[in-house]
């Protein structure tokens, strides 16, 4: 990511001298600062900001346009803003094309597909009510979906609660078509993350808001279980810009951009050591994960699974920590790790992307190769069914160390993104998105969440199958 930033800055400086600037001269700025500002103004998120909002962002990033540019580049790199994506939610799936159209399919008992009904969909179906609105990011939780538009607006549908359906402690109303979240109209949102019992959103200036965490004061503010108003995340991140958030089972990770470099903060439930602080203690306020400094690793992507977490470093190293059941940490065993630990068996792989689910982990290399490890249930790891069988003939064998997903090599195209189910109550499924916008699915498909018609009483697909949808 740092290389990308310096490349952008060099490009900005060169182009700055080749064409007229987009702003009045400011003799108080250096050439590199002027070039950085010029480059910032070419970025989609920065363009609609008022002069006051831009100055506020500059101060929040450390008082330098070069730092603002680094913040913007970092956000684009880890969140894939304004590019296509596919989300493997709990029982349902959401796909966003590069043009901003949204397709949904799978379980729909709460209206989480957004089509105005509660009927399952076994094939991708476009959400027609969103025509004219360009969506750039999606998040899916149990019975709930959230979409972010290029104008920073948030649309939600499905259950009107944020907890798991099994608990039934919150609202019972169903919203079957996308509805604007009125309480966030004053916030320009660029990302949403749905955890268990809470939702978090990230604003374009890098501020985190959460709501419906519960009445015990977690996440730094007191809320009631039925509170649907967003609250700024208090504590260490109040004045530090965040470029990416990731939500797991009752905890949140935040990738922050500081003048000294990138860092990761965690907050919430510490069960299994998933907060990365060397203990299993809950954290009410965001706390810096210090282990990355000891590892001399600059985080660039974070992923929060149900019980474990992962980070990709700027140098391509992968770190995992938390509950190690089924081998989901990739260290060759099922031990828990309460601080981030480098996955040594990936030492010859330069990773660019990581995804985590319920005891499963996927890593994408800079060459487009995919590695997976962890729980083999539902065939969601993508390994050939026959090759994955253990000594007892169980074809859903767990994988304790990273293994190349050879079935994805057969698609003969570079994989750029992996998404997998992150819920403890649903059989998992997985999506692989290629560079050209082709989508492949495997794992559980009993509710239609693969977007592929299953026959002969099938409930899953062990090898990647193409989904009939073009996301380019």
TrEMBL record:
<protein>
    <submittedName>
        <fullName>Uncharacterized protein</fullName>
    </submittedName>
</protein>
């Amino acid at each position: 990511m740092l290389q990308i930033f310096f490349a952008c800055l060099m490009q900005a400086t060169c182009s700055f001298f080749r064409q007229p600037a987009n702003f009045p001269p400011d003799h108080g700025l250096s050439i590199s600062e002027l070039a950085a500002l010029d480059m910032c103004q070419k970025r989609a998120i920065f363009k609609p900001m008022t002069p006051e909002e831009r100055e506020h962002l500059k101060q929040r990033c450390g008082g330098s346009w070069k730092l603002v540019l680094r913040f913007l580049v970092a956000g684009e790199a880890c969140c894939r803003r304004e590019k296509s994506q596919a989300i493997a939610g709990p029982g349902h799936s959401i796909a966003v094309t590069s043009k901003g159209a949204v397709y949904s399919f799978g379980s729909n008992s709460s209206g989480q597909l957004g089509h105005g009904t509660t009927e399952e969909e076994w094939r991708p179906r476009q959400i027609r009510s969103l025509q004219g609105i360009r969506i750039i990011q999606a998040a899916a939780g149990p019975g709930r979906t959230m979409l972010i538009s290029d104008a920073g607006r948030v649309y939600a549908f499905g259950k009107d609660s944020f907890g798991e359906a099994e608990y039934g402690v919150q609202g019972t109303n169903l919203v079957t078509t996308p509805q604007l979240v009125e309480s966030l109209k004053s916030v320009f949102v660029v990302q949403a993350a749905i955890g268990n019992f809470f939702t978090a959103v990230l604003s374009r200036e890098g501020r985190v808001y959460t709501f419906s965490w519960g009445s015990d004061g977690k996440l730094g503010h007191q809320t009631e279980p039925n509170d649907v108003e967003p609250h700024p995340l208090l504590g260490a991140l109040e004045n530090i810009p965040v470029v990416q958030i990731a939500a797991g089972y009752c905890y949140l990770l935040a990738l922050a951009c500081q003048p000294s470099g990138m860092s990761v903060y965690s907050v919430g439930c510490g069960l299994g050591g998933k907060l990365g602080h060397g203990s299993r203690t809950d954290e009410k306020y965001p706390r810096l994960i210090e282990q990355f400094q000891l590892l001399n690793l600059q985080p660039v992507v974070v992923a929060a699974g149900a019980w474990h977490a992962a980070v990709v470093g700027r140098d391509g190293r992968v770190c995992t920590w938390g509950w190690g059941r089924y081998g989901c940490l990739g260290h060759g065993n099922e031990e828990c790790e309460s601080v981030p630990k480098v996955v040594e068996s990936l030492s010859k792989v330069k990773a660019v992307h990581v995804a985590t689910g319920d005891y499963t982990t996927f890593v994408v290399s800079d060459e487009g190769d995919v590695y997976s490890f962890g729980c083999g249930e539902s065939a969601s790891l993508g390994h050939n069914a026959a090759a994955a069988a253990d000594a007892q003939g169980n074809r859903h064998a767990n994988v304790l160390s990273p293994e190349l997903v050879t079935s994805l090599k057969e698609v003969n195209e570079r994989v750029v993104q992996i998404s997998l189910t992150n819920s403890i109550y649903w059989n998992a499924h997985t999506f692989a998105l290629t560079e050209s916008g082709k989508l492949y699915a495997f794992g559980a498909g009993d509710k239609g969440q693969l977007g592929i018609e299953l026959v002969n009483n099938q409930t899953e697909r062990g090898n990647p199958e193409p989904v009939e949808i073009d996301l380019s």
